[in-house]
Amino acid sequence: MIALQHYLVVSAALFSLGMLGILTRRNAVNVLMGVELVLNSANLNLVAFSRFGPGNLQGQLFAVFVIVIAAAEVAVALAIVLTLYRLRRTPNLDDADILRG
Amino acid sequence: MSAEAVIFYVFAAITVLSGAVVVLARSLIYSAFALLFTFFGVAGLYVLLGADFLAATQLLIYVGGILVLLLFGVMLTHKLYDLDLRSEVTQFLPGLIVAAGLFAILTATVVRTHWAGGAGRPPAATTAEIGRLFMSQYLLPFEAASILLLVALMGAAMIVRRKKEA
Question: Which end of chain B has the least Cβ crowding within 10 Å, N or C?
Fold first, then answer.
C-alpha cells in the first residue's frame, strides 16, 4: 500500500537534488533547472497532502498557483540571464560581479 | 506487490533518476532533456494521486512552456558554433554534503512523524470542482495570479528589449 510517506520521500529526494543543482552549478540556466526541481517537489507535497489529508482540493489549487509563479519566474529570470549575457558575454553566475565595490 | 505500488515505484524511479541526471549531467542539453523526463514522472505521480487536471497542466505548462523557454535560454546564451555546451560545476563536495544532509533530515522527519490521516480523497474527476473553486472561493488569488503573469511577461519583454543607441 502506497501511503503519504512514500510521496514525501520522493519529494524530499527531488528537493535535495534541486538544492544540489542550485548550489553547485555555475551556469545560470542550469541553476534555474534546479529551481524547477525544487518547485516540483513542493507541488508533489501539496498534491499528496491533498490526496491523503482532509479530502478537499485545496492542495491542488495551491499547486496550480505554484505552477503560475514558476512560469512567471522562469520568464523574468531568463530575461535577466539574457541581459547578463549581452553585457558580459557569459552565462556564468560567477562573472556577474559588476556590483562589487 | 499491488499494481499501484509497481506504478508508483516506476514513476518515482523515473522522477528521481532523471532529476539526478539534470543535476549531474555535464552537458546543458542533457540536463534539459532529463528535465523533460522528470516533469513526465511528476505528472505520472499526479495521476496516481488522483489529480488529473494537475497532471495535464503539468504537461502543458512545464513540458510545453517552461522547458522550451529553458532550451531557448540555453541556445541564446551560447555561441551558435559552440557545440560544447558544457556546464561547469563548482564546489561540488560541500554542495553534495549539504544536499545529502538535507535529504537525510527530511526523510528522518517524514518517517518519524506520526501523520494524522484524514478522510482522504477517493480518485474522482477534479476539473469541474477546481474550476468552480477558482471562480468562487479563490477568485481573488486567481485574479492576482493573472495580473502577476501579465506583469511578469511585460517586465521580461522590457528587460530584454534592446535599447536604441542615443
Answer: C
